Amino acid sequence: xxxxxxxxxxxxxxxxxxxxxxxxxxxxxxxxxxxxxxxxxxxxxxxxxxxxxxxxxxxxxxxxxxxxxxxxxxxxxxxxxxxxxxxxxx
Length: 90
Prior knowledge:
90 residues
C-alpha cells in the first residue's frame, strides 16, 4: 500500500530551493518540493509526502484529519514512517 503522509514544512534549503526540511510527527527529513514549484511554500505550510516528494499542499485541518486516519491504519502507516525515516533526499 502506498500512502501520502502530511508533514509540516520547516525550512526551504536556501542553496537548494527544490528541497525543504519537513516534520512528520517528530521525524524531520529533507523532502523534494519541486513538484510544487508553482505554489508559494513557507514555514508552517502542510504538504502531502510520498516517497520523499511533496505531492500537494494541504491545509492544517486536512493534515490533522489525515494523520488521525493514518494512525488508525497501524502497520501500513508505521512502514511508511519507517521508509521516510530511512530516506535521504539531500
